[in-house]
Amino acid sequence: MATAAPDGTVLRTVRLATLACDGARTVLDRALDAARRLSGETGRDAGPLLAAGVATFGVVRDDRVLLAPNVPGWEELPLPRLLRDGLAAPAVRLDNDVNAATAAELRWGGLAGTGTGLYVNVGTGLGAGLVADGRVVRGANGAAGEIGYLLRSPGEPGHAAGRAPLEEDVSGGGLARRASVLAGREITARELFGASVPAELRVLRDRALGELAMTIANLAIVLDPERVVLGGGMAAEPALVSRVEGLLDRAAPFPPVLKPAHFGADAALRGALALALDSLSGA
Question: InterPro entries attached here (predicted)?
């Protein structure tokens, strides 16, 4: 959580543990209390709060956040209204964390200056942010870029069955779960990219990276972006980067430039700041 000046300069920060087991309302109340304290401390030197941006997991639709099982009860809260009331800011903008990170990359990072771009976040989960006409595309229901739900083969269970086929297969979290089953012990995504990976796990990893690279190349064919930016914990893995670069060159009629994300662990935070600034400018 942070406050910033209108030019994006961070003024103060505070970090909170989510503690999802406490339930959604307690998590929200704790965050709002911290935000009000942070805003008050900043306001003594920098003036009143002008706008607030909030990045959340899930899909923001109307007055609810959907597809957000990580915090019990989060989907039942009228989150946008509660944030507007609780923060008392003249303007409040809420979006999912990947769209927020895309907004940050568009304003300050690897997508700055592009009219059409693609941000792909590959970490514990999987998601994409689409940029067209210099703006982040949210879609009719706020679910544009939810590529974790892409089907991998005809007839496989999808969202209606409570599944996210591509995310389960190629995200860091999905890879770790599949590798743990194969190895008969807990395996982390970090271990899968280490120097001494057993052959059967290396095959699993490399197939997933190939499928992920193919997905990114197909997205680039559909969108025709100027740039593709990779973010998230797996984004810097040379094995992924080389596959994506190779497939973009071979498959896309007009291969885009591939770049690493400018923001790493603080991508969602920077994204929330970008959302607040966008609300001021009407973007």
Answer: ATPase_NBD (IPR043129), ROK (IPR000600)
